[in-house]
Design brief:
Length: 300
């Protein structure tokens, strides 16, 4: 996402916000002087980056600030960190990071908190329409933590599993979710087959993400869930949708009696590698190779 900001001298800046990558870690830890001094804060930032929950603001490749958005607060969106490099403050970066959280948050309620003494953050939040939502005493003695809340009523992204009869849901699919156009006959066959599973994320009636899988049995093994495809529209990437889709899929696998799910990806596909690692997927140590066989030259 591109941002148009103005620096303290009134000069226009064109910055970007994107999901933080492992390669950003050293710059991230150097940016946050607090993180340099406390191992717990460093570990928090590392975990957030590995989970894909950390977002960074950059200007000409230089990291200016970061924001962590997670869903650990009673399953609601929670901004657990906003930090802007000392020399880049008061240019609108903090506000842009908070607005980014509001844009990508999947839940209709977004919370955050800050110390009562933190007037910059309190002003920022009040300027963005956050409402005070109570105080937590005794975290920092004499400086209570103030909780803030923002309602995001337009947030209608829902993740669910499709079943037979849900075929029309795939009538409205955003670009980039599936590789090819939806075939109604194949959709009907897929959804009618209890071993095939399809989870979708819908934004106002448009499918913006999907995960597909098959659970299969074998004479000498208990059922397993093979994750076939995961796709999120470029407009909706970086919001945690793929994780939510896979969580729904794992639920379907558990209901089908599977103890294990597996997926294949290329090591070079860094977003996919990070996604599966963030879900505690164990990487196989082997260098597996996939062969494909053309078994009917008349079919494509
Ligand atoms: C709080 C923080 C993230 C703000 O980032 P920032 O990029 O400087 O903020 P912005 O330039 O986007 O400012 C947005 C609004 O915040 C408020 N604000 C920011 N800095 C302020 C200050 N020093 N004094 C008063 N209000 C301030 C203002 O309302 C400002 O709007 P305005 O410039 O139109 O008046 C930044 O000061 C920071 O990183 N602090 C250390 C980490 C921290 O405290 N994080 C929050 C903990 S929960």
């Amino acid at each position: 996402m591109r941002l148009n900001l103005t620096d303290n001298a009134g000069v226009s800046l064109s910055a970007t916000i994107r999901v933080a990558e492992a390669a950003d870690l050293s710059e991230l830890l150097a940016l946050d002087h607090g993180a340099q001094s406390t191992p717990a804060r460093q570990a928090f930032i590392r975990r957030a980056v590995m989970r894909g929950a950390c977002h960074v603001a950059l200007l000409e490749g230089r990291l200016l600030g970061c924001m962590v958005l997670d869903y650990t607060f009673f399953d609601n969106g929670f901004i657990s960190l906003v930090y802007v490099a000392q020399e880049s403050r008061r240019c609108g970066i903090g506000r842009a990071l908070v607005q980014h959280a509001q844009r990508i948050c999947l839940t209709p309620k977004l919370f955050t908190s800050t110390n009562a003494s933190n007037m910059p953050m309190r002003n920022l939040l009040l300027g963005q329409g956050y409402q005070p939502s109570g105080m937590v005493e005794h975290l920092d003695e004499g400086d209570p933590e103030m909780v803030f809340f923002k309602s995001l009523p337009d947030r209608a992204i829902a993740v669910r599993l499709l079943h037979a009869g849900d075929e029309t849901v795939l009538a409205h699919v955003a670009q980039g979710v599936f590789d090819h156009n939806i075939d109604p006959r194949l959709t009907h066959e897929f959804l009618g087959d209890p071993r095939h599973h399809l989870a979708v994320a819908e934004d106002n009636g448009v499918v913006v993400g999907m995960a597909s899988a098959v659970h299969y049995v074998h004479p000498d093994k208990s059922p397993e869930l093979w994750i076939n495809e995961v796709g999120v529209a470029p407009t909706h990437q970086g919001r945690g949708l793929a994780k939510a889709l896979l969580a729904a899929m794992f639920e379907a696998g558990r209901a089908a009696g599977c103890a294990e799910a597996w997926v294949l990806t290329d090591r070079s596909n860094l977003p996919a590698m990070r996604l599966y690692a963030s879900l505690d997927g164990k990487q196989s140590p082997n260098d597996q190779v996939m062969f494909t066989f053309r078994i009917n030259s008349e079919k494509t």
